[in-house]
Specification:
- This is SufE family protein.
- It comes from Alteromonas hispanica.
- Pfam families: SufE.
- Belongs to the SufE family.
- It is built from 6 helices and 2 strands.
- By secondary structure, it is mainly alpha-helical.
- It has a two-stranded antiparallel ribbon with strand order 1-2.
- A hairpin with a 2-residue loop joins strand 1 and strand 2.
- It is globular.
Amino acid sequence: MQLPSSEEIVDDLAFFDDWEQRYQYIIDLGKSIPGLPDNEKTPNRLVKGCQSSVWLVESYEDGKITFDVDSDAVIVQGLLALVLAAYNNKSPREITQFDVDGYFEALDLERHITPTRGNGLRAIVGKIQDLARANLS
């Protein structure tokens, strides 16, 4: 299953009346991500700064960066889906220019997740942006 775009996710979440329904939508998005095989869950792919284990694998082809991710926590897998909707299969320039703060604000997300989850989300975004900056040409 292909993830909806970041704009579609913002629209979809606005449709729900309460955060319990929104959490379920985010969890369902996370379930659509295939995850990583165990042999790719290596220490060098762990994202530092996350309370849960989060693995990130990037590949660069035809000017675009593709990310494969996995987590040992269901809600974090859903948050990873939100991040992938914004960044996956984009050019390094598109990644570095994306207004992630505006995206998270539109989702009204950070008011509804724990501070440690928020820090982990920022760590994931930071890692992706660092990878994109390293591939800017």
